């Protein structure tokens, strides 16, 4: 569902937020929420998120619980939801801007950093922020009812996900063999889990004018899981050399690193079609099903 300006203004007003019509700016890249940036008559800037489908509401409720954990703890910024209903999520705009914004038409990022030569400030402050996030006590997640996986469970969960996707869509022989080699290698998997963001791509990472990371947004996938999940998008966006620099920064900031971490992240990236397939099943969108089949090598 995509709302027009009149509907956006009316819904916001019902929730106690008056916005100036001429200030509305749309970000249509999100699959779950229509995002609108707006300014009220006092000059306060707002982020307005409107659910595209009813199935995202339970996920939003979980995100609210997550934000109640992370926002008071982290040194970087996270959203503080002032309005939360089935129609609208609203919070005051954070200070940074996304490192990259997805252009839906081009299916590519519009960058605010030099993606070919990632600034030192970016990966150093990103590694520091990730290390801080991953240090959050697991008990916080348990109390909020979030998924909390042990090192033993992360591999079993991955194997189960692979099997479910294969049963539904099929998987090419080459990709399936790679997955089996990875999941069967004891030495490559981490011996700890951590509180992760779960969807830490450049569009969810805020930066300032000097490319320092200032905040994380869109926390719906946060949980206690394999830390490698928070590195995969960096690998996909910037390549292996930049990933190695991020891992070094993360380790210097106290993050958990093991000898095969880089290789494990690379193999986790090769399993990205699983997430596409699971979203296709959840959303029921035909174009997502076609995308899943292509990624799985069965189209």
From TrEMBL:
Entry annotated with the keyword Calcium: no
Aminoglycoside phosphotransferase domain mapped to chain residues: 24-259
Gene Ontology molecular function: any one: transferase activity
Keyword rRNA-binding: no
Highest taxon in the source lineage: Bacteria
Sorted UniProt keywords: Transferase
Name of a matching Pfam family: APH
PANTHER family referenced in this protein's UniProt entry, alphabetically: AMINOGLYCOSIDE PHOSPHOTRANSFERASE DOMAIN-CONTAINING PROTEIN (PTHR21310:SF15), AMINOGLYCOSIDE PHOSPHOTRANSFERASE-RELATED-RELATED (PTHR21310)
Protein name, UniProt field: Macrolide 2'-phosphotransferase
Species of provenance: Oceanobacillus chungangensis
């Amino acid at each position: 569902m995509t709302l027009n300006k009149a509907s956006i203004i009316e819904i916001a007003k019902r929730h106690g937020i008056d916005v100036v019509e001429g200030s509305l700016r749309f970000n249509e890249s999100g699959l779950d929420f229509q995002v609108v940036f707006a300014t009220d008559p006092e000059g306060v800037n707002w982020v307005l998120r409107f659910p595209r489908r009813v199935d995202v509401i339970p996920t939003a409720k979980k995100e609210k619980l997550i934000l109640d954990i992370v926002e008071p703890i982290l040194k970087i910024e996270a959203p503080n939801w002032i309005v939360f209903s089935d129609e609208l999520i609203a919070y005051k705009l954070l200070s940074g801007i996304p490192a990259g914004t997805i252009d839906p038409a081009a299916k590519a990022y519009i960058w605010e950093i030099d993606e070919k030569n990632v600034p030192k400030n970016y990966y150093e402050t990103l590694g520091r922020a990730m290390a801080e996030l991953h240090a959050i006590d697991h008990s916080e997640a348990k109390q909020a009812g979030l998924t909390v996986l042990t090192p033993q469970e992360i591999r079993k969960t991955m194997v189960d996900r692979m099997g479910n996707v294969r049963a539904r869509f099929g998987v090419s022989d080459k990709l399936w063999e790679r997955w089996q080699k990875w999941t069967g290698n004891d030495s490559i998997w981490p011996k700890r889990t951590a509180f992760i963001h779960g969807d830490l791509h450049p569009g969810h990472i805020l930066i300032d004018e000097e490319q320092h990371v200032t905040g994380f947004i869109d926390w719906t996938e946060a949980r206690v899981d394999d830390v490698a999940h928070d590195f995969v998008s960096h690998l996909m966006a910037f390549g292996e050399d930049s990933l190695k620099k991020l891992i070094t920064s993360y380790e210097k900031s106290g993050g958990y690193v093991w000898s095969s971490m880089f290789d494990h992240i690379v193999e986790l990236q090769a399993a990205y079609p699983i997430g596409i397939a699971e979203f296709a099943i959840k959303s029921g969108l035909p174009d997502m099903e076609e995308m899943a089949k292509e990624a799985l090598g069965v189209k």
